[in-house]
Amino acid sequence: MNFHKAAFKASYGTEAQLPESNRAEVSFAGRSNVGKSSLLNKLMYRKGLAKVSSTPGKTATVNFYDVDGVDLVDLPGYGYAKVSKSELDRWADLIEGYFNQDRQFALVVSLIDIRHDPSQLDHDMVGFLADAQLPFAIALTKADKLSKQKANTQKQRIMRALELPQGTPVLLTSAETGAGIEDLRRLIASCISPA
């Protein structure tokens, strides 16, 4: 799978607008300020493909990117308080609506900021993915902000807190330094079944 072959495809603001799923999808979910757009840009070898903003919660739509014939799907960040209740509800409906559709989920990457213990929303997301038996992995973002030893200790702590199913991949990543990005590319490629 060639991550250099990446292009923006489309954005959708409501569940009803979402297109039918006709090929493998790798989805990215996480809190609003977890660094999702930065990670996606690093993954796709692009600087500004996924819009990065100094204001968390900027992704208010489901954004599709075509990467070598696979859809990378950027879901709205959850848990950001500085938007209206109706907007938060729309995001929640959009995320839930996406997951409730019959789609070709190859992998869901749940992003969690390594510097903090998982929030209730992180627990809810991981619990949902496990209950729905969707293939998922955890990407711990911003690993460059901690020493190697601290990052590994925190990784173990987060894994215990989330009570992950046996064998769930957990990767230390940094969009800043590129740490763990190649591992994530390999994991994604391994989850895409050969056509």
Can you describe this structure?
By secondary structure, this protein is of the alpha/beta class. It has a single domain, classed as Rossmann fold (3-Layer(aba) Sandwich), CATH 3.40.50.300. Helices cover 32% and strands 22% of the residues. The chain is built from five helices and seven strands, in the order ββαββαβαβαβα. A seven-stranded mixed sheet has the order 1-3-4-2-5-6-7, with helices on both faces. Strand 5, helix 3 and strand 6 form a beta-alpha-beta unit. The longest helix has 16 residues. The model has no long low-confidence stretch (mean pLDDT 89).
Protein traits:
5 helices; 22% strand; 7-stranded mixed β-sheet; alpha/beta; 7 strands; single chain; 195 residues
Short description:
The protein is α/β, with parallel strands linked by helices. Helix content is 32%, strand content 22%.
